[in-house]
Write a structure and sequence with these properties.
Elements (H helix, E strand, L loop, with lengths): L25 E4 L3 E2 L5 E4 L6 E4 L9 E6 L9 E4 L12 E3 L5 E8 L3 E4 L1
Parallel strand pairs: 1-3, 2-4, 3-5, 4-6
Antiparallel strand pairs: 5-8, 6-7, 8-9
């Protein structure tokens, strides 16, 4: 289970996908999803909360972006599953529960793992 919550600061609007690092166009998803480096995901949690699982073998500078497609993270939060790597230096999954939040994660190294940019 997810015993602890790492919460990002409120955002304003989704940023364009980052240049380089294999960033792709925004993809709308509405159920559990296994991400790959460079994913930019509009997460539609209108119907139910779900999880985005980070890549299993990230390399430094890999990025994954998640964004609240319909402003429903406050009701149906998104879980970002760490998939074995640390998240913000912790061995914990992250929940995003602020409506309209966009979070960009970049893999740093085995110690810090994925960091919020």
């Amino acid at each position: 289970g997810n015993n602890s919550v790492v919460q990002a600061n409120p955002g304003t609007s989704p940023a364009a996908p980052a240049a380089g690092n294999g960033a792709s166009a925004w993809k709308v998803i509405s159920s559990a999803y296994n991400s790959v480096a460079g994913d930019s995901l509009m997460c539609n949690t209108t119907a139910a909360p779900f999880a985005v699982t980070l890549p299993p073998t990230p390399t430094p500078n890999d990025r994954v972006q998640v964004s609240d497609y319909a402003g429903t993270f406050g009701t149906n939060m998104l879980t970002v599953a760490r998939n074995g790597s640390n998240l913000m230096g912790l061995a914990q999954d992250m929940t995003v529960k602020i409506p309209n939040q966009t979070v960009t994660l970049q893999f740093i190294d085995a110690i810090q793992g994925w960091r919020i940019l």
